[in-house]
Amino acid sequence: MCNTQSNMLEILTTIIVTVVSFAVIIKTVQISTKKELFLNVYFPLYKILSPFLYKKLSVEELQKLLSEIDNTFSQSEYLPFFVSEHIDFLREGLSKEKVWQDTYEELCRYIDIRCNRLCSLLGYPKRTLSYRIRHNQFANIYEKWIFTAIFLFAKTVVFVFAILFGVTILAWLKIVLANILSLPM
Asked: What are phi and psi of 184, to 5 degrees?
């Protein structure tokens, strides 16, 4: 009976170790794939788009942007379908002189969200809220106002906390000094 329990325990242990090892290997491969995608696609695209992120562009600016993307990714096999599809839509919109601004904003939103998610996953620093406010990198005016209000509220809370902390420290020092000075020598 004891031998049967021992065999069952060995089998269960082997299964658990196999499943955990498999999960760790899969997660490691996923992380390295996402890191490669971030470094070879999303970060270079973000660097190109960053000065123009969510901005209204002229046709000339968009053509310049598209040629810079072409130069950067001409030899690359990494460009994801969603990105290449939107770039093709932008090119098509230019050649037919139709409205392409919505497609451009959708591409900006996709790159922005994807970069932030990959930065979080990989442990890279993300753009701060103050950076986004300074560079006006918001999809619409409502998003900008909401995030600006949150940012100002947080700054105010930190400022008030710092003042209260300072006043508390000064009061504590006053009590300590009063006790030290009133001690008989």
From this structure: -70, 140
Q: Residue 91 class from Cβ within 10 Å (0-12 exposed, 13-18 middle, 19+ buried)?
A: middle
Distance CA 180, CA 93 (A): 79
Q: What is the pTM of this model?
A: 0.63
How confident is the model over 67-104, as pLDDT tens digits?
A: 888 888 776 666 777 777 878 777 777 766 556 777 88
The CA distances from residue 78 to 33, 35, 153, in Å, are 11, 12, 41
pLDDT tens track for 162-177:
999 989 998 898 888 8
Distance, CA of 27 to CA of 122 (rounded, Å): 12
Q: Could you give the residue ranges of the DSSP H alpha helices within 38-128? A: 43-49, 59-73, 81-95, 101-122
Distance separating alpha carbons of residues 21 and 157, to the nearest angstrom:
46
Phi, psi torsion values for 80, nearest 5 degrees: -65, 155
Q: Decide which of 43 and 133 is more confident.
A: 43
Helix (H, G, I), strand (E, B) or coil at 139: coil
Position with higher pLDDT, 116 vs 98: 116
* 94-116 b/e (C-beta count within 10 Å ≥ 16 → b): eeeeeebeebbbebbebbbebbe
Structural contact between residues 126 and 116, judged by C-beta atoms closer than 8 angstroms: yes
